[in-house]
Amino acid sequence: MIRSRFLRSSVLVLTTFVALSCSEYSPTAPPIQAPTQAQDGLLSGLIGLVTNLLGSVLHVITFRYDPNGIPVNAVRWTGTHVNQTRSVSGYIGQNGGTLALPSSDFTITFPSGALSQTTLITIVSDGTGYVSYDMRPHGLKFAKPVFVAQRLQNTAVYGTPLALTAAGAYFPEDPTDLNGTINALEIEMTTIFSSKNDGKADVETWLLNHFSRYMLASD
Question: What is the dihedral sign for C-alpha 102, 141, 162, 18?
Fold first, then answer.
C-alpha cells in the first residue's frame, strides 16, 4: 500500500515538472486530447528521476470529512503572481491523461481506469488571488483516485510553517467569500514534498475521488 502510494505520487510530481515547463494553455482554445498516463510497468523507473528533482516527503495529511464543516483558511498567491482566471479543457478517456495550468503551477493526472468513458474535463483557476480551482463536470466520480500536483513556491505559505499544514480542501458549493475562515466538507489526502535545493516544502499532491470546487487551504 505504502509503496503503491509513493509510486503514484512520484509519477504525478514528475508530471508536474514536465507539464509546467510547457506554455500556458489558452482559456479559449478547443478541447485537446490529453496524453496517455504512464503504465504501471514504468513506475519503478521513475523513482530515481523524481528523487533527483525533489527532496523527501515532509508530511502526509490524512483524509478528513465532516458534514458540519472543517474550518480552514484559503491560501493566497504571493504579490508577484499574476492573478487572472485561467482554464484548460481536454477529453480524458479510459487510458487516462494529464492537464496542466503552468501559470497556476497546477497539474491534474487521471490514471488508467479512473473514467469508464471519454469525458470533457475543464479546470478553471480562480482569478481573485486565491489558489482555488473549479473542476468540471461537477459531481463527476472516479473509479480510481485522481492526482493533483500543486507547487507552493508562488503561494503565501511557501517558506512558512503553514506550508506543512496546507492541504487540498473540497467545497460542495462555491464559497461566496474566500477571505477569513470558511468551512470545507473534506480535507483530501495530501503529500508534501521538499525541494532538493533548499529543503523547503515545494510541491504537494492531492488525491481526489470526485469533482467540484477545490482549493489550497490551511488550518
Answer: negative
Domain at 29, CATH number:
2.60.220.30
* Domains contained in the chain, number: 1
Instruction: Look up the pTM and report it.
Output: 0.80
What is the CB-side half-sphere exposure of residue 45 using CA atoms within 13 A? 5
Q: What pLDDT band is residue 197 in, cutting at 50, 70 and 90? A: confident
Residue 215 scores a pLDDT above 70? yes
CB atoms within 10 A of CB 41: 7
Quote the CA–CA distance of 205 and 189 in Å, as a whole number: 8
pLDDT confidence of residue 211: 95
Which domain does 153 fall in, by range? 2-218
Over residues 164-177, the mean pLDDT reads 89
Q: What are the residues whose beta carbons fall under 8 Å from the beta carbon of 124, sequence distance 6 or more?
A: 85, 86, 87, 133, 134, 135, 136
